[in-house]
Write a structure and sequence with these properties.
2 domains; six-stranded mixed beta sheet; two-stranded antiparallel sheet; globular; binds iron/sulfur cluster
């Protein structure tokens, strides 16, 4: 963490020095946490006079997403007059990719996130660096990657820092250099490199310095909804239909009841996934198959009481 770049707001939250970045990239899914993150970012960026540096990015998961998600994300960005970019994996969409790979992603192997979100967003970073260089910028371009992840969502997210450097082996910053030196020392002694000594495989490199900021990391779900209602932004109808989160229609991390509710609302995509599951011979998840979800959705026409999920 680069402490000199942090200040604290009225609520004691860490706020990076937004003016020290050439680009502020706000990752939005159009869900409630993204909406709260965007409203919070806009407050701080307005105060810092850097609204023109924000680029709102939506990683498009195509047919796997709820209908209208991409359009709603664009609407949220437009409400604040912000630049909006859509990124996507080159090649097949998530459902076709599952079929190509012959397997669903899982909690332990979330290739859906790395291939369909992280990778495409990094390509946007590359394009933004080029824009800065074309405009005459010399040296590393500073990018602040802003996301709506919250500690309450899962034990893994609880461990995240609200602000961190997205370090990498090729990043020349002092922190990554220090870690590289430590790692090389361990290697020279034939010892395993401990986690704290690894620069990581983050988004920084010789041309860009990337930090990550989670402005709503400490917020509760109630805090999030308060900010969403106060913003006046339109909320995706999936929430009113009973879904606790907006993600892929059939997220591999979702609770069973959420999957059943989604199958009631999206019978076509549910049937398609069940057919994929049958063709590849790989279950949607160890504890539940899409075939079971489809059957349960058909047998229970009433909306189930939907449990949220961690992930
Ligand atoms: S929402 Fe779930 S299934 Fe979709 S990309 Fe994220 S983790 Fe994977």
């Amino acid at each position: 963490m680069v402490h000199s770049q942090l200040a604290f707001d009225l609520f004691g939250q860490e706020v990076p020095d937004l003016a020290s970045y050439q680009w502020i990239v706000a990752n939005v899914s159009a869900g409630k946490d993204s909406m709260a993150m965007l409203t919070e970012l806009v407050v701080h960026a307005t105060a810092a006079g850097v609204m023109d540096r924000i680029v709102v990015v939506h990683a498009d998961l195509g047919e796997a997403e709820w209908e209208g998600t991409r359009e709603l994300a664009a609407e949220h960005a437009a409400a604040y007059g912000l630049r909006f970019e859509v990124v996507a994996r080159t090649g097949s969409g998530l459902i076709d990719r599952i079929e190509e790979r012959g397997m669903f992603p899982s909690a332990d192997n979330r290739w859906c996130t790395s291939d369909f979100k992280r990778g495409p967003v990094r390509r946007l970073f590359t394009a933004l660096v080029r824009e800065s260089e074309a405009a005459g910028h010399r040296g590393q371009v500073r990018i602040l990657n802003v996301m709506g992840l919250r500690a309450d969502e899962s034990p893994a997210r609880r461990k995240l820092l609200a602000f961190s450097h997205d370090g990498a082996w090729t990043c020349p910053c002092p922190e990554c250099r220090r870690r590289r030196a430590l790692a090389e020392g361990y290697k020279a002694r034939g010892q395993k490199v401990p986690k704290h000594a690894k620069p990581g495989w983050g988004a920084s490199n010789t041309r860009r310095h990337v930090d990550t900021w989670l402005p709503v990391h400490a917020w509760t779900t109630a805090d999030v909804w308060s900010a969403v209602w106060a913003s006046g932004l339109r909320v995706h109808p999936a929430y009113a239909a009973g879904m606790p989160r907006l993600s892929c229609m059939f997220c591999i991390l979702a609770s069973r009841s959420a999957l059943v509710r989604s199958a009631q609302l999206n019978p076509g995509p549910a049937a398609r996934l069940a057919a994929v599951e049958a063709r590849i011979g790989h279950r949607f998840r160890l504890d539940v198959s899409m075939a079971e979800i489809v059957a349960e959705a058909a047998a229970t026409p009433e909306p189930p009481k939907v449990a949220c999920w961690q992930g």
